[in-house]
Queue: 3 jobs
Job 1
Amino acid sequence: MSGGESRGGSWRGGRGGRRGGGGGGGGGGGGGGSGGGGGSGWRGGGGGWRGGGSGWRGGGGGWRNGGGGWRGGGWRGRPWRGGSGGGGRGSGGGVWRGGGGLGSGGSGTFGTQRALCQVTLDALCPYKGWALYFTEGFIESAPTVKKIKVFEKYFTSRIHLYDKDEIERQGSILVDYADLIGDKTVRKALPDLTTELKEQPELILNSLGVAIHQVLTVDLEKQAAELQGEELPVATPIINIPHISARLYNYEPLTPLRTLRASVFGRLVCVKGTVVRVSNIRPFCTRLAFICLGCSHTQSLPLQHGKYATPTKCTQPDCRSRSFTPCRSSPLTHAVDWQIIKVQELMGGEQRETGRIPRTVECHLTSDLCDSCVPGDTVTVTGIVRVTNDGISRGNKDQCMFLLYLEGISVSNTKGQPSKSGQGSRGSLEDRSGGEEFSLKELYAIQEIQSQPDLLRVIVHSLCPVIYGHLLVKAALALALFGGRQKHTDKNSVPVRGDPHILMVGDPGLGKSQMLQAVCNVAPRGIYVCGNSTSTTGLTVNLSRDAGTGDYALEAGALVLADQGLCCIDEFDKLGSQQQALLEAMEQQSVSLAKAGIVSSLPARTSVVAAANPVGGHYNRGKTVSENLKMGSALLSRFDVVFLLLDIPDESHDRRLSEHVMANRVGRGRTSSATVTRANNQFDTSILLEDSDMPLSERLQIPAGETLDPIPTCLLRKYISYARQYVRPSLSPEAAQTLQDFYLSLRSQRHSADATPITTRQLESLIRLTEARARLDLRETATKSDAEDVVEIMKHSLADTYSDGLGNLDFERSQLGSGMSQRSAGKRLINALHSHAQRTNQKQFDLQMLRTVASSLNIKVADFEGLVSSLNEQGFLLKKGAKLYQLQTV
């Protein structure tokens, strides 16, 4: 025979043609190839070249065995990776990467062979929970296994410190980062653990999970063996421990929210901020079961980072279906709790920046981390930076836009202790720290500040040095910064607030706003808002709806964000109807919400420091505080101390004030200055002052020739934070007796039944301020001298509130009612209207009729409409329309 010919057809072929055909590629039907005869095909055929069989290199019609075709089933005759023949290096029916086994006959796919081999390898895996953390197979020589062994030794040495039942119930274990890195065994075996944890956090955390899972499994197996040795009944020898997450906390360093960029994607970071929004808890699917539509076989697929995916093929050997339907009710489907919180950066202290919106980041919490915080809490979140598409964009360009979020690993609330599910800030009402940590250098500075001979004077002159005078006002503001001690914090009793509220009322240009900003800057946690640009929901809490899910979520307002801190409200008189939103927050120290079927209450344990201007721009001493501010009595009574800052001309005071202003302007530095006593520029309050060697107002002044170095703001902030965190003062019997005597003396000075200027609220205010005075000196016991200082501050406030325009004090003059000049006139007018209503059976009067009745009684006041408005505010007259009023007391 000549080369290139065959009896049955063409070269390298048989009846089916070149390189294929019905008989198989590279072999097949009839005809003899070159150098041989018989069968068919090159290197094949019955008597072909190198003889044997009917396929290439023999066999039953396929490449290296198989049933018909090159690589099974005919090349280009049937699919290359499929056909009726056997797979590559195997025989039978299926795909090239399949078959009964590697290099052997049988049926199936190469993927099934690999899976069977993987099952064999996994059966040799010593870690029972490997499949819960890793999708790849176990390899003994892998670097991951080395890390797991090191972590296993770490947990074994500390297994006695953990509550194993609690770990299984919560499904998580707390791992201290400092303890993990500081362990000698870990540091020696894994010197690059810090870098790996930062760059590959998921790998390290999964390794920690496998290690603790293995330690608990071995411990339970040991207990089961001991029970079996004692011939005690054991339920089952199979140990099924669920997935245990490693909650890494105390991770360092803290990452500012402004540095969260694309460069930190996939890294482990730790951020600190205030929770401003908390969503509802929803189920989050981590593994979903799918049913094959071809063979009804069920398989499960892990969903990475919440991204939905479907299987690419069926795992059954004989099924080629690629259509699946999810089965959410299958036991193979696994879901966990999932919640989103929004964390806003802390804006107090050095982090305060103006001219931009505070940065926020969303944190996704799962499992036991859900319900670990509420809006207003200060939290430290450790998590992995992830990205997700916003899901709203529709353009191709917008599909490349992603949003950064944190996949929460741990959440530490307030004191830095990791929070558990359902334990927000309400679980620790006594905790007031805000999670502040102090270095050794800062502790030495705090000790140095505490050792000052007259610390109150130093702090008062450090509070706002640019404002001259007002020393007693600054002293009260300093006490508000430290605050008292909250009592009855258990759930079975009503808590008594320990945060004092301060109100400053006065003429414009006296430095009220400057002092507010100074107090807000010094406070460890301070919020500053202005009344003319604040809404009710901006002060309390807002209920917003998520655009994607449609769920309602709570967004914290200023009072909730200032929880365990200070809320400064400027232009308090401009709030208008928003003032009523402060009633609950100032006394019960909580904000309740009932809207859209949601009833909730958020903590608002904050001190309110407010500044207000009187109506008309100038304070009228003939009117009370309530009349000057147009403020309700219920709100005004909640302030512990009310100060009046009046601009009264005084030659000596004006000269020293001008010298102070010029010294600051010409660059001679900030000089602490003294102030004149109120006896020089306003009125004599000597009848209020008890006999004392040196009253507080004189002790706060700086003598001539003496200089005082103010405490830097950063150190003063640390000192205040330390005092609020660690000092829990209580009253001594002498201090309690001093406060009680002062309270009873004030109560005895009222002369009429309808004038009660002093109530138990004032007594509680005295107690709070006295505790704050002791906390300022880092003392656990408030002494008699502390009570005397607070009594003098309270007398100063009462002298402002109950003094008339002539400098006299009248405690019948309630700060909540009307002024002296209008008091009797209002009573006479109401009595006359009462008689007129009984005669005419008419309860409504217009303004002209009211003027007629007043003229008949010879009532002459400078502002008659102001008198009517005062009666309206006090509830005697109800405004029914334009200049139309209805008598309420009939």
Job 2
Amino acid sequence: MSEDARSDAAGLRLGILARLADAVALAETLREVGERGIAVLRQNDVDHPAVWLLGVGGEGLVENGDVPSTSAQAVHAADARALARAAAGSGRHEVHPLAGSAAGLAELQAQPVVEPGQDAPSLVLVVGLEQRLGADAEFADYLEVAAALLGAGFSGRRELAVVRQQSETLRELDVAKSAFLANVSHELRTPLALIAAPLADVLAAPADEVPERLRERLATVRGNVVRLTRMVDAMLDFSRMEAGRITPNLVELDVAALLAALAASFGPAIERAGLRFGTELHELPRPALLDRDIVERIVLNLLSNALKYTPRGSVDLALHPVRGGFEVSVADSGIGIAVRDQDRVFARFEQLPRHAQARSTEGAGIGLAMVRELSRLLGGDVDLRSAPGRGSTFTVRLPYVPPQARDAVEGTRSITPRGAEAFLADVEAWEAAGRPEPLAEAAPGERPRLLVVEDSADLSRYLAEVLADDYEVEFAGDGLQALAAARARRPDAVLSDVMMPGLDGFGLVAEVRADPLLRDLPVLLLSARAGQDAAAAGLEHGADDYLVKPFDVADLRARLASNILRAAERSAEGAWRRAVLSSLHEAVVLRDPDGRVTELNAAFTRLLGWSMDDGPFTPPYPWWPDPADDPGGVERIEAAARELALGRALEGDFPMRHRDGRTVWVRAAGGVVDVPGRGQTAVLTTFWDVTREHAAQDRRQEAARITADFATADALDHVVGVAVDGLHALFNGDSTVQVAGPGVVQTFTASGPIEVDLLPEAIAQRLTGTDEDEPPPEEPVDGILLVPPSAASGTRAWVQFSQPRVVSTDEQIVADMLAQAFALAVDRVLAVGELADKQVNLEKAIESHRMIGQAVGVLVERHRLTPSEAFQQLRRASQDRNVRLREIAQRVLETGLDPVDA
């Protein structure tokens, strides 16, 4: 094939592929994808006058239409089916030559069609060619792209079909739910009416016919019947509205006058709540044709919502004319709504997470959804502007005349009227919930104390009445209040609702279980969620029992009693266990399998400073080392904890952090033990203080290093440097050393040589005294004197502690050994030459140490180091580079650089 022919063929194929992509993209169904695809591919009769789209079994998916029986499409249909089965089986491009074709075809080629995300082909594309191309790469690529486009088209239509089916299913469920709500609401009206009417008769009876306590209970029942009736009406209205069965009853309204009346009714309730209520109601230029009940419902819903979620500040109602209509806005300074949640507040049956500052958490989640739907029913809409902590503004924009006004029929059925009185009844319930009336307290010890945690004032009062004979009842409105009350005065049991603002029931259980002083407190949960899964969830969170509303009072009493009895038994067992642990001299920690510490004894507190009052304790524990300071120690402790969790025994020495910040070395031994009568296990670990043992070992190693440095020092300035630095590091104090030469005594500190007369008097006296002048070893001292037991020179040293402490026997032994090594080193380097040379050596040492002191001063000033850190850097640089300390100091003085770079 010539280059021109190849170019023409490539252009034709690209055009076919572009049209194929457009065709499958416009297809609506799977069948259309196949039909449109084959129609486009058959337009390329230059390459392939015959085209088949077949299933993996060779079955045809697209009809051939009116194809003559003598055409290639019909003559080679059987060959195409056979090749399709072969290509589907192999999963790759197949070629089948034809010999003596009556239809003029030279070969068939097949390409599997694999949809995106699938491994096996779902279809096979077969084409018939008039000339043999065989394994022509360009044609194979063309066929592969065509198959890929078909696969993508089929996949997209399948996904679209699934989405459409899901949408239709959701729509059907939505319709079914609305119908169910409507039917249930209708069915509830009759029993509600039969409850409400007799109640009204009884409550209307003379006072002497109905006892006061019974009258109070019946009044609570009537209030909840009214509330339930309102909820039923709201759900019925919402279902009717969704079904399009609410038609606004349009009448001329003076909107400003209507809003003023609503403000007059609702304003006192807002002000009683401690909020400022403002109105800005502008007269509109014309009356509006609206449904009075719908407008009232919109405005009262918004006012009620503002009061509910505004703990302090203000609520403002405004009316403004705008182009084509008017705006009603309700603004508050309340808790606000995050941007991500602002669409959710208008969704039906949607409730945002409960907020601790809300006046109530009750509601069905349809109030704001109804505001939006009712606004749209009148031809308007609602807008929200809000930010957390900065309040919210809801703005309803309505036209003067709704679009459906021309079709309105006077007296049509609108929503159920609900005036301001109904909303105010809800507000009164919130106010009552905020001031529950506890019963008079009984004498301590007379009855068990029961903490009731419930945000419904009616239910709280009812529980108080039915349980008052058996318990001293105290109330809390949410989990946080309950936790504070329990910590202030521990109850015998807690009875808590699950759904509450702020800290809910599950969160309260978690906090109680984590508090070392409350963790064994019995907690019973009350919830409206029924079923085994809900009960299991409550028990998994750590509750002792789970009751479903509505509950049987006798069952509640029985469960409370049994849980308090079991808690008392556990408390007695715990007190016995704590007494046993406290009697032990070794520090003991008891943990549950999750790592939470359940017991610490007094010996542990003496060892590391932490007690159960500082808890709760969970890994990483506060007595573990800081990972930044000792990562290796933390890794060893974590590895040991993992071994313990696997049931393996623990034994080893570990660094721990005392509460005051110092390091304490402990020897730990532990293992897993069974808790009697519980069917549970615990991890028991015992600690012994081995800090002195580790300190002595470290001290001996450091002393050995200093002794070796003394032995290798070949100059007096080197010996002095080793003494000043080494004694400071070993005894953790400021060291002053004295070197005696012929006719002269010189004193050195970390800052350089110093005259004895310039030393503090106490240190000067110590350097001239003997160790016999020091206090007894069992008394705290302000330093340690190093005097060699025998030496030819008057060499000695004093280390001043930062604060007085007792010097251990091991420290004194090390001090005596180093004093001897120091004196011997001084004598050795001075004994190298004659007496005159000794004098020169001493003067040289003085000059060298003066230079070292000046270098230390430079490092302190320029590099912000302490004198000790500066001297350590000089010494390390001297050792690392095998250069005398004097030379390093001289370079630092000349350059001002760090010793490493000098």
Job 3
Amino acid sequence: MVQYLKDDRDGHLYGKHVVAAIRIVRNLARKPQGSYNMREVMGSFVTKLTFREMCIVLREQKGWRQVHDFFGWMKTQLQYRPSVIVYTLVLRKYGEVGKIKLAEQIFLEMLEAGCEPDEVACGTMLCAYARWGRHKAMLSFYSAVQERRIIPSVAVFNFMISSLQKKSLHEKGLHLWQEMKDAGVDPTRFTYTIVICSYAKEGLVEKAFEAFNEMKKSGFVPEEVTYSLLISLNAKHGNRDESLNLYSEMRCQGIVPSNYTCATLLTLYYRNRDYSKALLLLSEMETCKVVADEVIYGIIIRIYGKLGLYDDAQKTFNDIEKLGLVNDEKTYVAMAQVHMSAGSVEKALNVLEIMRSRNIWFSRFSYIILLHCYCMKEDLTSAEVTFQALLKTGLPDAASCKDMLNLYVRLGFIEKAKAFIVHLRKDLVQFDEELYMNVMKLYCKEGMLADTEELTEEMRKSPLFKDSKFLQTLSLAKYGESRIIENGDKSSNVIDQPDANMLVKVDNSSDALDQLNTTALEMLLSLYMGESDASKTDYILKVLLQSARGLSVAGKLIRKFVQEGDASKAQCLHEQVIKLGYRPADAATASLIDLYGRLQQLQRAYEVFASVAESLTSAKPIYRYMINACLKCGNSDEAVVLFKGMIKKRINIDAVTISILVNAMTSYGKHQESENIIQITFQEKLELDTVAYNTFIKAMLEAGKLHFASRIFERMLSSGVTPSIQTYNTMISVYGRGRKLDKAVEMFNVARSLNVSLDEKAYANMISYYGKAGRSQEASLLFIKMQEEGIKPGEVTYNIMINMYASVGLDHEAEKLFQAMLKDGCSPDSFTYLALIRTFIANQKFSKAEETINTMQKEGICPSYAHFNYLLSALAKEGRIRDAERIYRECTRDSSTPDLACHRSMLRGYMDYGHVTEAISLYERISESVEPDKFVLSAAVHLYKNIGDELKAGSLLDSMSRMGIPFLNTLGIGSKMKAA
């Protein structure tokens, strides 16, 4: 206490003179360098400061210059003695500000002063090197420290290892870690964390987990960042279960996962399609209040896309866009990929365009996705521009090349496709097997034999295709042409090839033959057939047919030639397959017959049919297409002969073939033949389906054999075949035409009671027959009922209703319905307007009828003669001759072939009301342009007689007699005028 009072500290840590010295030296920082002399500044402190107090003043300085100058003054004082402590203080300050050269000089000075550096001094120097990234100097200095047998503290080791890790010098950091362990320095939790990170970065999974387990054994609880790192490491190496176990362990420790950990796990679930667990993790994130970042939202969008929840993906994207979180290219690309999966190419392109407009950098992957979009859209120009942009990032990937090549081929730019392949090969683009196959497919299709062989050679030299069955099969075809495999040959044949590694052994065993790539054989078969190389074609076809799927592939190729319209190749291949002792697939034979039918080459179709006819027992498709070919070529009699031949041979005839035949006979108007076929079908008790029965009923309806149609329906019910909506529709028509309205109503009600979903056609049919029976009330009620059932009336139904109102003269109802039709968005047609005109004329509203014709014309619907003639005839009958003349002129003004009905109506009006002169004038105008007509010629005879021109009247009578046209004696002139 006495000493404390003597020092006059007054409660301060240091004495007043020490505090004053610290303050004075610190204040020098405000003065420019060289503007002061430290000896003068510290003059009042000479002999007053002990060595320990000078060390305190030195330690409390903040600027390195003040440390440098004060240390220089300190060394001039009598109290100073060289010590490792004071040098360590100076080293620390120099290290903090990065004055490594000065630090090195001070360290050398310390050694020259005879001060042996201790653990702290060496550690300070090592930390200075580590802090400023002087790793080479640090490791060199560390070696010198080791030579002095000085072991740095764990803090120094942590500093050095951490510094090396930050610069990705993981190998050197791990070497230090090993030396630290060898030196017996106990690591801290921080040490383990950085070491595990380095092992992870180096991909040393086992070492990382060794350090992790050692960490836990040492009693340290790993931090979230350590767990996250190891979870990510396991996920990258496909160790799904280990990642999930680590996460469970972390949660048991009560550690809340970070965004990075959640993103890693979501990615893992996404790749393994474990979407339910992904959704559970999202719920857990919400519970733990882990706020999702853009990366997590991007993964969520991808998951929604995989689940087909496209709307949810779009909503998520919109939500994070509103939050301002969409800043990363990967998020935009994820949304674009979702749109592509949904088939919305335009939306995908729009997302990528938004990304571009926001100046977000396009990576190589973005260009790949953009290119795929344009290829899906078939926008060749944009695709080519994008492909050029992709080239600037390096050689294109195989998938992008496939997209471009397929686009050229789809759009028919074959020459561009060929040039594209040349560029790819010239630039040494790495082909994958699929791209290689696509190129080969084009070469084979275009008959480019030399290019095919050249590309095969290139691929054979690539180690990527060493085990490719596709390439091996092509090599077999090239080098094994002289080794033809006979069906009965049991020995193995080795195909000569230049490269022993690519030696292909082919024998007749199924195992060996199944190793061949049938796609390659299909391509080559197409190529050599195009080249007309018979020997090669035979060889490849033999090899192909001996493989398990060979016959199927040959059939597929026949169908392909048929689709391309190449009948000669298809038939040639068909014949070769038969020649080699095989029967082509029924579908292939049928498709070839169908092609000849479409080409109207019935004889060719018969040749194909004959080539397999002997082996046919129940080949339904072949007979069906042969019958169809006969029908397409207009030879219905041959089709019937084939049908009867099938019956005679007891070949089971399917319902589709029978339906096609009956339907064709009906369309040709051969109703008796249709009936005969139906009768044979019933006699032979052939199995029929709903469609067949519907076809039969409709055929008999069109033939007018309504009773037989009813019997067919009864047979259908007794056979247990369920009627369809079409059945009931047709049966309503059958009973309706037979004037059995009650039966039609019964049929309609039966359909409703059986919960058959009646469509508009059924209702329209029933309404029509109500209308024809004059039961407009029931028709109107059914029309309302139809709408109540949620069935929206169409144009046909509205026309039926308006026609019905027209027939009973209900013009107000017809007009009201017409307005409802317009409101419902139905466009009236010519028949609608005709019904309205009839309605207005029935009620003698001639002006409204004329307005309707004008409305038609304004709507762009050209009125027919029927529209004009209804109004013309009505006006003429009413004696409104001038109005009738006006309508007549309008009707015939633009017509090069005037309608006879209009001429008759006008002529009759003139005659009925005694306009003889006008009637004769009209006749003489039209006599040369119309066909001879009984009424027109008879009217002319009466008119000429009326004016006393017996010569002309007699001449006309003679002409009518020669043409066999009867004369109408009862026609009179002015009959209505007299009555009036």
